[in-house]
């Protein structure tokens, strides 16, 4: 999905059936914020690996409990404060 800005939908969970077998997604250079990405996780129930490189993310929020990933790639995002990274501490392994 790199460099493809897909319009966000309000009820992402309603599409979860379409992504039932999705375990890995790369959303690079689509210029989503962390909040935009988190609004999509409801449709990725079996996601294990999330890559969101080069999206100009500067801040993070605590991810929803439904996000059960094993790997997260934030490469190239200008996150400058460890307090932002600490918000990811609730992610399970």
UniProtKB/TrEMBL annotation:
It comes from the Eukaryota. SUPFAM superfamilies: L domain-like (SSF52058). PROSITE patterns: LRR. This is Uncharacterized protein. The lineage of its organism: Eukaryota, Metazoa, Ecdysozoa, Arthropoda, Hexapoda.
């Amino acid at each position: 999905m790199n460099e493809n800005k897909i319009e966000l939908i309000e009820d992402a969970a309603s599409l979860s059936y379409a992504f039932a077998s999705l375990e890995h997604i790369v959303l690079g250079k689509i210029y989503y914020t962390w909040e935009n990405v988190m609004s999509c996780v409801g449709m990725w129930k079996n996601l294990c690996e999330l890559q969101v490189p080069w999206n100009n993310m500067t801040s993070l929020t605590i991810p929803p409990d439904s996000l059960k990933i094993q790997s997260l790639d934030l490469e190239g995002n200008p996150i400058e404060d460890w307090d932002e990274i600490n918000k990811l501490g609730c992610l399970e392994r």
